[in-house]
C-alpha cells in the first residue's frame, strides 16, 4: 500500500472507531449493525482494495455457514461451531477495523499513541502487537507447509493433538521474533528518555473528523433505540 493510501485515515481515528464499535456492537439493532458493517467495508476499500475483497469473501462464507447450520440439529460440537460463527459475524465490523489498523507501520502507530501522552512502554507494546498480527498468519502458513512436507495433516478426531502441532512451533516462532525485536528496539534507542518526534504528519483531517462523527452517530442511534 502506498504512503498516501496508508494515511487516508490516521491510526487514532481507527482506534476511536474501534472503541465505539466495541461499546455498542452487542447492543445495537440489526439496522445499525448492517450500516456499521457497510461503513467499515467502505473504509477498508479506500485503504486496501485487495484486502476488502478477502474480507467480503470471508464474511459471505461465514454468513452462508450460519444459514446452512440453521437447518441442522444444533447440538454438541455443531452447536459450538454455530455459536462461534455467530460471535465472529457479530464482531465482523471490528475485525474489519483491525484489518485497517494493521496496514499502518509501527512508526505511525507509535507516534499516534505518543500524541495521546501514553507511556512509552505501552505505545511500543501495543504497536508491535498490532503490527505483528499479520505476521503470525504467515507463521501459521509456514507451519502448515512444514507439516504438509512431513505428510502430517489436521485430524478433526484428535483436535488437541492437532492443535499442539501448530501451537508448539508458533511459540518457538514467537520467542525468535521477540529476540529479534528486542535487538532492534535497543539498536534504535527506543527506551532512551527524551522527547520523541516523528516526520509523519498525524494531525487529523476532515476525513478523520467525519469518521469519528459517524461513530458518534452510531452511538446516538443505539442509545435512542434502547430508550
Automatic annotation (TrEMBL):
<feature type="transmembrane region" description="Helical">
    <location>
        <begin position="206"/>
        <end position="224"/>
    </location>
</feature>
<feature type="transmembrane region" description="Helical">
    <location>
        <begin position="59"/>
        <end position="78"/>
    </location>
</feature>
<feature type="transmembrane region" description="Helical">
    <location>
        <begin position="30"/>
        <end position="47"/>
    </location>
</feature>
<dbReference type="Pfam" id="PF02361">
    <property type="entry name" value="CbiQ"/>
</dbReference>
<keyword id="KW-0812">Transmembrane</keyword>
<dbReference type="InterPro" id="IPR003339">
    <property type="entry name" value="ABC/ECF_trnsptr_transmembrane"/>
</dbReference>
<feature type="transmembrane region" description="Helical">
    <location>
        <begin position="84"/>
        <end position="104"/>
    </location>
</feature>
<dbReference type="GO" id="GO:0005886">
    <property type="term" value="C:plasma membrane"/>
</dbReference>
<protein>
    <submittedName>
        <fullName>Cobalt transport protein</fullName>
    </submittedName>
</protein>
<keyword id="KW-1133">Transmembrane helix</keyword>
<feature type="transmembrane region" description="Helical">
    <location>
        <begin position="7"/>
        <end position="24"/>
    </location>
</feature>
<keyword id="KW-0472">Membrane</keyword>
